[in-house]
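thought: fold this chain, then report.
action: predict
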Amino acid sequence: MGLFTSCFGDIDNHHSLYGYHKRVRQSGRRAAVTKAMIGKPENFVHTGHLGIGTVRGNNNSLNTDPEKLRTLMSQVSAVIDEDTLLGVPTEARRPPVPAAVGVVSAMSEQTTLPGPDGTPPSTLLEATDSTAATATTTSTVSSGKTAAAAVAVASDNTPRGPFPTHGLLPRTDTQAGEFVRKNASYDGRGTVVAVLDTGIDPGAQGLQTTSDGKRKVVDFVDCTGSGDVELGEPQRCASGALELRGASGRMLRLNAGWTNPTGEWRVGAKRLYDIAPSSVRGAAKREREERFHKEAQRLADGVGAQRGKENKPSKEVKENKEDKEKGKDGDKESKTTELDAQAAALALLGTAYEDSGAMLDCVVFHDGTQWRAAVDTEATGDLTHAHAMGAYKITGDVALLSRRQLLYFTLNFYDDGHILSIVVSAGPHATHVSGILAANHVDEPQNNGVAPGAQLVSLLIGDHRVGSLETGVALTRAAAAIVEHGADLANMSFGEPSATHNAGQWVQTLRAEVVRRHRCVFVASAGNEGPALTTVGTPGGTTAGVIGVGAFVGDEQMRTDHAMYESVHDTSFTWSSRGPTADGARGCDVFAPGSAIASYPAYTQQRLRLANGTSMSSPNLCGCLALLVSAWKQQNGNDSTRISPYRVSNALLATARPFGDELGAGLVQTDDAWQFLMRHRQRVYEDVDYAVSVLDMGGARGVYLRNAEDSAQPRHLKVSVSPIFVDDADDALEFDTDGHRGQAANQRRFDFEQRVLLTADAPWVRVPGALYLGSEGSVFSAMVDATKLEPGHLHVATIRGFDSAAIERGPVFTVPVTVTKPLPVGPSAYVRLGTLSFHPTDVVRRFIAVPAGATRARIVLRTPNTEAHAAAPALFYLHCLQLAPQERFNAYELKERVSVGHPSFVAGAGSAEQRYQRFMDVLGGATLEVCVAQFWNQLDCHEVDVTVDFHGITPAGSQSARSFNGASGLGAAIAINGNYGVVRTDFYAAVRPEYGIRPKASLGVLRMALRPLSATVSPCASERDIHLASGVAIHRLVLDYALEIKSDGATIRPRLPALDTKIYESWADDFALAIFDANKRRVASQISYTANVTLRKRGNYLVRVQIRHRNEKDLEALKASPLLVDMQLSTKINVPTFLTLASAFTSTVVGSRLTVSSIARGATMPLFFRTELTGLPAEASPGDVLCGSLSLSSQTAELPIEYVVPAKARSAEKPEAGNNGAAVSEASLTPAEKDRKALDEAIRNLRIGWIKKAKDDGVREQLVSELLASDVLRGSAPGGDDGKEQDEQSKDADNDFRAAVLSAQLDALDPMRKTHLPWSDGAKLTAEAARSAVGVADHIVELAYPLALTVRLHQNQNHQPAGVSDADRRRKKLAEAARDRLVGALTTKCRALAFLTTQTTASSRSSETSVDFIDVVSSSEDGEKSGSHWLSEYEKTVSDLTKWTGEKQQDEDAQFLMATLPLLIAKQSHGRALLSALKWIDKAPLLESNAAERKAMVEMRDLLVSQLGWTVWADYLRDLALVERPPSYETL
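observation:
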């Protein structure tokens, strides 16, 4: 996934050589110095300074005799490779000297060594013996080379000669440098290469022009859509003004020089952080936060200074205590409280501060010729001097998005100007890749890429929203862009592991349309997941038609890129992924240099940088192929038919130079490949590829016998071989009107005939001698007999097919044969691999047949540290891997770095064995590869002893159980149904006796299944989303799921199992998922690799899923797809586990709860799980699943368990209050009376409801008057026998009825009291309505107050059921209703009074409304009551309301706060009001039900901050508003 492990693969800078004193020994990498020169090798003493040492004679004295030294020099002068020292290319060097000749390392400071011809002193450099012993491994050890030879050093330790610049970007080993030197114009010019990556930086050096002066980058395309700006409807400027209201809320001043014939403008906005690379985002965030915090701190300091001043005890206060007691000092106390509140509010604001980044306004218009846009990069609204940029492809416009960060961008326009695409690099990876491929440094040609004449198309597939990972949408659009731009080649240094080969919508489109039909040579990195076998990724390693590239490291890279003082032989990087694929194909087709120092983005403030990985080898190879395509075009004319990818691939593979790869892949040889093309330019069959299919192995592309049963007996196989012909895009029916082109294509197929000679290069593989091959293909028989092969080792063979008419051309197709015959494991379940010897770059791999029933393996590495094995510390890779059918290779994998050797070792100080123990979960019955590799740049020799033993306890009847940490997490698990009470499961030890059994089961994840709220299928509207093959719009299914989270900080992971962890091999075109909060803010974006998301606040969330596919019917079938949401539990729930059924219920059973400590091999142990659990999460509903694990011992793997949440228990039914009394009263009524009573009550409730619904004020008043005058339900309250009690109840009922009517009237007067501030337009309050509300509220208080007082008398009645009558219960119920109506009336009265004590003015900063609060209004509109009256009444009402509400309600009830906080504001206590508002906002859940309240409180907060004059916070909150509360859901 993504960039293969990291942005640049495995960075070798992290594995720099350890500093140590090299000891020269007779074995290993001994110094090959002739005895005639310095005597015995042990007399060489290393000083520890990069290969500089001293030469001593046998008597340990300095050998300073000039004649002897001259003789010595004459003997070794031939090996002082001055060409190497000066960086001369290999092809121009003198012939090499025999490897057997050795040289002296250096002279001491006391010795001046003249040259043999009297020249000034020079440095003699050490060489190593090419005949050094090799380890018994699958790699071949060749001679080491002294990397220090890159620069000569004079006797005064000053370097001589230039820097070896040719090693910065390796071209020598691939013959690319020599090819261009001989053919200067064949440097890639005339070719277009698409780079599918993170997007090239337009400001990078070397990526501006080609070698022939053309624009280097043809186009920058954001295929992800993460830079899209959705534009609003066209608008016009107000008459006489050139201003617009931007999407951010700012007023935008436009450039008068822009040409806009229509006068129509479209606006949108984009947050800088949404499109900035992570490094820029981090730097900008730090700078913005630092600047903001300084301003905020100045404000806080000012408030603190005022607090200090107010808190100083004044002289008057000390001298006049009497005045203080009389309240004279009350104003000061109030001011101090206000300042304290302001300080607390500032602190709370600071705690909640979150830099959202600059919101960049965009203005788009059409200048009569093309679309243009201006981006407000400074976020000021001033565009009067801004340049309106066009699409880069047309205009070449490039600008800085962040001037300070050197972040460049380009633009594109789609869908007739409705979409503006801001194209910004998502990371440095693409720029580095492009620098390797085609950089052209005009003034520094030594820094050039492989093909400096090539042009590039930057295709951004790394989505900003998901950490620069590729998405299905991006890949589909990139394929279309390759075709649209006519790219000759494409490079893709992205990929991921996959479970199947040649599968998936995009892979099929790539093979059929991009490669085969449109003849694009597609190159991709194989991956950085080695060194184990079968670790190649998709598409670079598993996709037919795509050239997969491994990472090679040679001498020039070691000397320059990695600054090694001593090099090793040419090899592949240790981490480079290896083949074969799971279906036996080669996997890694070819190798290219996997490191380079190349161009880097301007925003990193670094011109060039070293990076390593197959991400680097892929563009190096692509550059080499661009040279070939460039040469082909120039040889055959640019108007000729484009060279086919198959011809290029055939030449590449036929000429690659072997360098020791176990599976036979070689290093690209550019010049040799060109010679091959020229020799066979007339051979039409070079434009043919061959599909190999082993019919007996499910259509596999090779023979791969991995497991024990595969090689237990000879395999007789049928192998199908079929030719694949390139298709031309012009052959399509719509272009071939007369059938001429179709006739020619079919004639080529008709004429195809090859008479093939077959060979096999191993005696255990037999094939027939000949095969006739026509256009429909043919089948031949093969026999592979691996029965006599050595177990535990890798065995490789190849079946080759030669065209009998052109045998010298080499094989036209191959069938790889790979056998990993595993070592059997005995009853002890223990395997010792022995002591493995390692030289530099060695990789040793062994294969073991994991016993059926094993679930865990223990791998132990031991390294001796005795004097006999003294060696420098070295980095090793331990890589263990199993393959499971249709699983990604990392499903069962252990990969770790291990340091071997003690840095503090002192010879003769004794021995201390190092021991490394690692565990991994395994799959019983599948072969385990144990791969141990000495990291490629680690010198010296080492020995490692390796042992492996297996353990396993599985559910009985199952050969194995999926690891709890398995790739999908949805495999077979032990099911515990919570409705069963007790669940039994039997466990079986199939591998060996297992000891230390301590069963423990726990649940840590709640898995909820959600059904969609809505599901819609529609065609994609954008012009970018047309299916490349069919030419019709791709369809999309949008599923919305409602998710309620009941606790702050919950961690969840949403997913659709059918699309989990699949991109390239997915049957769908794309899968995207986003989580939105109740404010419509996107809080997470994910692709099929869904990950944990922490939701900061509890509340309602919307999970939106988008699935794209070209077939509408396939999407219709998914409309009811459930979404699984895994939520991490804050505390794990333990599942009680027992040995017997009885002990699960009682402790009196003989025997303890868990006494077993072992299970014999082949024995079964039952366990019983008690299913009645406590502490289930609040979100859990019946049918949901709790997931966890069962640990049986420390030696065995944890087994997954799933607990089904049981049906909820019924709560005990409480008797209804007043049941007996009510029964008596109801029983005394006749049926007619009962009906009349029910009808009267229904009519009353209906009429009360219509008070709020009535639109006409007259109708409402009439309803109120009629209801207040009616006798409905009065005097009918059921009660006891006492007449006085009936009178009291009738009075209470009467008052309750009147209060209910008036409360409905009050709601009608202030209909928005629950959702809007009193003064806002949405509140719909008028002065007349406010005054009426005050009167109605007073009436309600008068009616409800007496009964509401009795609430406290009934608070403890539930605890004394025997002493409470039914009448008391009914009276309590009426009292609670009266209290609620009383609180409601006081709340509405407060709101009305708040309205009457405020005045509304227009804000000078925007068109929004702000409020000026006054403490005393000198006059009123009606002239009846003054503002001071209303304020006094407001204070009294707030005081009354506070008495009837608790502290919790005062803090958490938004209605209370909206009603009472205006009083604080009117009294100039803005800080106290703000602090209360901030606390509410911080604690309030994000619910749909409180959305209006949250909006009102945010409005209150913003107004208060403005009233306080806190400009820094007011500006921040204004900018934050569009981020936190966007107007609509963001498009996926």
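thought: worth noting. The chain is about 25% helix and 25% strand.
final: tokens above.
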